[in-house]
Amino acid sequence: MSPASPPPRYRHVGLTLIELVVVLTVLAALAGLVVPLISRQAADARVSTTQASLRQIRDVILNRYLVDNPRSMIVITEDPDPTVITITLAGQSQDVWAPTRIRSLFTQSPRAAAYNPSVRLGWNGPYLVRTGARYPGTTEATARGFIADEYAHPDDPVLLDGWGNPLVVRPIEDPNDGNHWAIISAGPDGNLNTTNDNLRVYLHPIELAP
Fold first, then answer.
1. Predicted model pTM
2. How far is the C-alpha of 161 from the C-alpha of 81, rounded, in Å?
């Protein structure tokens, strides 16, 4: 009989503690690089989405709503809103024609002229698709600058920015180009009162009432 064969030797295929520590260290380093990159991309996406929405509203107002509803026939007010609004900019009061409220792009005002196909004038909306979002009326939202005024009412249909806050129309002073109406996003902090991070597009120019 041949002598018994030695038992087979099995190669160790597991990780040693040192190898495991090295692998975890590498993974942690990669995570430290990837997570900030993803965060920046998400932030950039919110900015891009907001800028696209601002441009969309601006283009709808200038190229569709105001074409159908020229100033001479617009009655965009709903009681008790005034047709002409007095605003104070740079310490001076002036009367200006209010631009369309964002809600007027969704719903015809009772005082707006109905569309007349023979002259191709009148409210011919809705000019934007409803998203289900509404202008807030809470105390917390008011503290962040989303006040109920002649420009927006609680429960008005709105479009939201990339951070989930309503886009608003407001008169604003442009130090480089006079006074204008602007469509504004509150920006990443969601606060209209802090203007350093607001995103906006302008409706040029502001039109003084006769």
1. 0.67
2. 26
